[in-house]
Design brief:
The protein is 80% helix and 0% strand. With 210 residues, the protein is mostly helical. The protein has a single domain (2-209), classed as Tetracycline Repressor, domain 2, CATH 1.10.357. α2 (13-35) crosses α3 and α2 crosses α7. The longest helix has 31 residues, at 63-93. The protein is elongated, with a radius of gyration of 20 Å. It starts with a helix and ends with a helix.
Length: 210
């Protein structure tokens, strides 16, 4: 009986690997969010974990690979949430969207995740803001993951406005960057949002996230 209990309490190799990877990603996520991509080394991550850097190299082939894993761990879910919101809204309204409705469909799920999620989502929000606004170590990821969503938003706005105006496209792509400060829950976000946006929906969401 005691031997059976011991076997039940022992983690499998796969479980041990999953736990190690999660701890590495959690630690790296926190450090990248605070210091940026260029302000963190693999040794920094290892030192914070109290391990040798060789263990991180065992799982990840360098800092870029680790950063990619940190980013992709949550961004896939973020994209899925926004896609579901746009799908549901488009099914509901058909050819008669509104500007506010389209923006809510695009933003609401994302704001809910960042506002109600755990501390890891806050760290990811800061990384998201860095990647979204600084080329050189991840801006191309934003193009790959979010440009298709922005194009869908543009399509909805064009239905509402009955125009192919380039101003709609410019405004929609600008919106991709606009809320990232609030996603990171940076200090003073409510003030920033109030001075830069007149949209009551954005103001309400920013207030919750501050």
């Amino acid at each position: 009986m005691a031997a059976a209990q011991k076997r039940e309490g022992r983690r499998t190799r796969a479980e041990q690997r999953a736990a190690s990877v999660k701890l590495i990603l959690d630690t790296a996520e926190e450090l990248f969010s605070l210091h940026g991509y260029f302000g963190v080394t693999l040794k920094d991550v290892a030192d914070k974990m109290g391990i040798h850097a060789a263990l991180i190299h065992y799982y990840y082939d360098g800092k870029q690979a680790l950063f990619d894993a940190v980013f992709e761990r949550r961004v896939n879910y973020a994209v899925t949430v926004r896609t579901a919101g746009l799908d549901a809204y488009e099914t509901k309204v058909g050819k008669h969207p509104t500007v506010e409705g389209a923006l809510r469909a695009y933003y609401d799920g994302a704001f809910d995740v960042y506002i109600n999620g755990d501390e890891g989502w806050r760290s990811f929000g800061r990384i998201f803001a860095q990647v979204n606004n600084a080329p050189g170590y991840g801006a191309e990821k934003m193009d790959a993951y979010f440009d298709p969503l922005v194009l869908r938003l543009i399509g909805l706005l064009q239905k509402r406005c009955r125009t192919q105006s380039p101003k709609i496209s410019f405004g929609a792509f600008s919106l991709r960057r606009a809320p990232t400060r609030s996603f990171s829950r940076a200090p003073g976000v409510s003030t920033v949002c109030r001075t830069r946006s007149a949209d009551p929906m954005i103001l309400k969401r920013c207030a919750k996230g501050s």
